[in-house]
Amino acid sequence: MTAPVNQRGLEENVTGTEPLLSVRNLSVTAGPYDAVRDVTFQLPRTASLALVGESGSGKSLTASSIAGLLAPQLRASGSIQFDAIELVGQPWEKRRQLAGSRIGFIFQEPMSSLHPVLTVGQQIGEGLRAHFDYSKAERQERIRDLLSLVGLSKGRQIADSRIGELSGGMRQRVMIAMAISCSPDLLIADEPTTALDVTLQKQVIELLQSLREKMGLSLLLITHDLGVVAEVCDSAAVMYGGEVVETANTAELLHSPRHDYTKALLAAIPQLGDKRDRLPTIATTAPWLSDARLVPRDQRPQTTLVQESDSHWVRRDIGTETR
Amino acid sequence: MLSYAFQRVLALLPTVAVPLILVFLLLRLAPGDPAAILLGDQATPEQVAGLRTELGLDQPLIAQFLKFLGDVLTLHLGNSLFLHRPVVEVIPQYAAVTLEIGVLSLIIALVLGVTLGSSASLRRNTRRGRAATALGIVGISVPQFLFALVLILVFAVGAHWFNVGGYVPWSAGAWPHIRSIILPAFALGLGETAFVSRITRGAVLDVMQEPFVTTAKSLGIPLHRINRVHILRLSSLQILTVAGLLSASLISGSAVVESIFGLPGMGRLLLDAVQRRDYQLVQGIVLFTGLVIIVVNLLVDLLYAVVDPRVQLARKIK
Questions:
Q1: How many beta-carbon pairs below 8 A join chains A and B?
Q2: Under a CB-based contact definition with an 8 Å cutoff, are residues B230 and A118 in contact?
Q3: With an 8 Å Cβ cutoff, are A105 and B229 in contact?
Q4: Predicted ipTM?
Q5: Is the minimum CB–CB distance between A108 and chain B shorter than 8 Å?
Q6: SS3 content of chain B, % helix, strand, coil (to 5)
Q7: Which tens digit of pLDDT belongs to each residue from B16-68?
Q8: Which domains does chain B carry?
Q9: Residue A29 in 3-state DSSP?
């Protein structure tokens, strides 16, 4: 039997230096309802962590809270420490200093997330202008360097084009070039491959991998694709209904999942040569959010994260034994 | 860009045909004999018959139209019956006043309207933003003539900064001239300001929701710069459309303002011409106004392509 450990224990569990990003008891609320609850995880320097979960599990809101991009009607509480700087409750002007320059964000849909009328060069340039005192020529040069870094060779031509003139893969590369333009320490990628077809997905994942190595980036990858997680991330946190239900290093999570939801998620992945007629499905989506039946906080079962091995934490009902 | 401009000009040709045909039919479809109408009650039958031949009214309609086209192209629009001067001489003189006031009021409407509108949307949850929204609603509800009267009352009768009415030509000096058109331009422009401000507010609110604004934020770009570079640039497309439409309504709206301020502009000229049944002059004014509106729309089309280069691209692909 493993006793429930308080959240403080989770933090102390980390070996070595202080993590780059430490999220503790993060909740995101809209009025009386919460879409993200008590999310706690850490990302060591130069490591990569996946936030995995279905739509509505709160993974994107968690990412937005870290980047300070929550919609105005949403409120984050708890603690997000980035390089020992507390981010929750900071005014935008303060967070702006970090945005782009230390925290880069890759969005899912490059077509709508990039400006339709400004050229690629102008858009990347706007980000550079916000954090550096480059001359115009230096800025141009930096933009071409960035574009070649993400594998776009005709830098000058691409810098002068608009997003509508580029292919899907090129667009996502431009998006990545923007996110890394000010050499951030942390790169948050919110479903960077979801809008792409399979061959492009692979290219983008390889690009992210190589950039991580070249630039020493830490990566927070938001995805629902466990294949990508296996390929890219050191560890993973599975989110469901706004909570982290299980977190472990990637190999352990994929091979010996403990939480029922993680097991169900893994069982739903089709295998090559699969003989099953139907894949197993998961019945409810985001239980407290679906069905317009928002269950108030105090009427939900009380759960907590329980440490079950070195790096493996699982959410259990309070008072239940380890299964 | 040049080929795009050329295409736009070509596309205008059918549009130009519409005012031409309307003006041509205006006289021919009026009840009674156009020649008799033109000459008035005291004309003798011989005079009427003479004018009929002179105008070619005894020719078939198509032949009349071709002759009319030829007249228009060679700027032979006849004489104003009342002013006894060629229409092509009368119009520019009056049009200058109207265009001057129109352009000035358009500038007023755009500068004030875009400022108010973007403030109303970008700061919509602050007191200043709400004040801008409220001001816009008041402005849109107040009729032009009331603006004109209030302006006269406050700034001319009350403060004596301007003359109550009357027009001072350029020849009497630049400052006296400008003083005489500032109040009319504001009277004309203030109502339109409210309109532009409403449109700007809506356009900016639309663009603010776009994901690329969040992207710009994630890069740490200062908000004032996002507003200017990322948001207003796109919103300006809708504002431009409205500016095109406005310039048409400014020409027609000038009739009221010109009457109140006693300015010798096109709006008043048209009113007088209609009242005096000065058909030749009415023809000329309608034709001229139509052409001005078409040219303004051409300018708007060309500006579109400057602000949003995708406009040209879309045409290339087609």
A1: 86
A2: yes
A3: no
A4: 0.83
A5: no
A6: 80, 0, 20
A7: 888 888 878 877 776 667 677 777 777 788 888 887 787 777 778 888 888 88
A8: 2-73 (no CATH), 91-275 (1.10.3720.10)
A9: strand
